[in-house]
């Protein structure tokens, strides 16, 4: 195995171009190193981008919040700008593994790995984040929910790097929430993870973005539930419970695995959706 360790973004993009489609990108290494140790992955070429300071930094902008791909979960937790503009993303970052993992796990790696159990990806979907991809051919932006295409599969071309993520400015009347269910309160892989952003005005839902992880082969937007909620007051009681249970039954495809069963995941997803939306409704009244 050959490892390239570029010191500049230009060198990294050149290495990716030359290495071909089978090369793997190494950022914090919290996923790829485990795969290599277990033998699940044996790449011939690895491009280690950890030293690229051009992919670091958190910056408040007129549009919202710009976050470099190599920003770690620990960086997010320490950033006043992230706490002010992307509170639920910070909350999710604090749920990623132990402190040692948070010091290495990166935002770009969480996206690029495209694990269905990724903690940060549902939040990026719910917040309407955009992802910048760069290569020697230029740059392009994709909505985060269009970057992830399937199980550990993304729209990133082999010669592209995830450079940064843009989280739009919080809209007036937008309520956000995040919840992760695992075997333990901390340091566990998600059995179910949910994030949502619901914007209301005069008691009516103007928009809803709801995403879930660990309930299919990839992180999902729950588009059916979003449509059911938009344009009306938030439902309550039995109606809300029914809508959430229906979304959990029809909009995801969980599997049995060593961490949980599909039946449990559907049940928990429905209850989490109901609880978080009840919290949104309560916030409106307060």
Descriptive overview:
The chain folds into two domains: 111 residues, Uridine Diphospho-n-acetylenolpyruvylglucosamine Reductase, domain 3 (2-Layer Sandwich); 112 residues, Enolase-like, domain 1. The chain contains twelve helices and 14 strands. The chain is an alpha+beta fold. The longest helix has 24 residues. It is globular, with a radius of gyration of 19 Å. Helix 2 links the parallel strand 2 and strand 3. The mean pLDDT is 94. The strands form four sheets. It has a five-stranded antiparallel β-sheet with strand order 4-5-10-6-7.
> What number of structural domains do the residues give?
2
- Helix percent reads 25-40%
Strand order of the largest sheet: 4-5-10-6-7
CATH fold title of the largest domain? Enolase-like, domain 1
Give the class from helix and strand content and strand pairing: alpha+beta
CATH first level of the largest domain: which class? Alpha Beta
Straight-line N-to-C gap: 58 Å
Gross geometry = globular
Average pLDDT over all residues: 94
Strand content: 25-35%
**CATH architecture grouping of the largest domain:** 2-Layer Sandwich
Multimeric organization? single chain
CATH superfamily of the largest domain: CO dehydrogenase flavoprotein, C-terminal domain
Number of helices: 12
Counting DSSP E segments of at least 2 residues, the number of strands comes to: 14
Please tell me how large the radius of gyration is.
19 Å
